[in-house]
């Protein structure tokens, strides 16, 4: 049966997350209903990242497999986009892939970006799209602290208490802070996979360094503590974006 890889972007604000739920709107629900409406097939749209309530994506990847061979990738993309409108969910790319491809399990890297609006005045345009931090953030200190988290570590201090991962050990390949403009700050992280709330807990911890409440050295102590209570607060979901998912060349 033909299998298709979909690249998807969405505004996470109206949804309780990616994953299908019995109650409440999810991105997966809307996509699967759109597929059913044009194909008549009840199939899973399997995503690479199960983003939480309010988290956005510019590069989520999913796959769908259909029994009917009359649909090609472009027809599927156009049909989903037409049927899912006006929901803020869009398939931006589609291609046919091997049946061995799996959006989640074939992935070798995920990249997240966290957006901070750093100014005293509140926002009229970025509510739910960035974290509004009033206190000035010192990026050099944040960057120094971030590098203490790069590499292979036990990230127990940065996982949620509800995290179901068997191990807290992860390899963080990149964690960098950039000033995009006078008031806009981006934090970029790359890893094969992330723990539940790992990125948001890291951002909340780095923010404490940025406002001068903690030193960059403190982050090493937090990591070594292996206790969630040792780290900073969980940053709001609205600032987080899944920006890309990478796969081996054969896919």
UniProtKB/TrEMBL annotation:
One of its GO terms (biological process) is tRNA pseudouridine synthesis. Formation of pseudouridine at positions 38, 39 and 40 in the anticodon stem and loop of transfer RNAs. GO terms for molecular function: RNA binding; tRNA pseudouridine(38-40) synthase activity. It catalyses: uridine(38/39/40) in tRNA = pseudouridine(38/39/40) in tRNA. Its EC number is 5.4.99.12. The active site is at 52 (nucleophile). This is tRNA pseudouridine synthase A. Homodimer. Substrate binds at residue 112. Belongs to the tRNA pseudouridine synthase TruA family. The keyword tRNA processing applies. PANTHER family: PSEUDOURIDYLATE SYNTHASE, TRNA PSEUDOURIDINE SYNTHASE-LIKE 1. Keywords: Isomerase, tRNA processing. Residues 9-105, 145-248 form the Pseudouridine synthase I TruA alpha/beta domain.
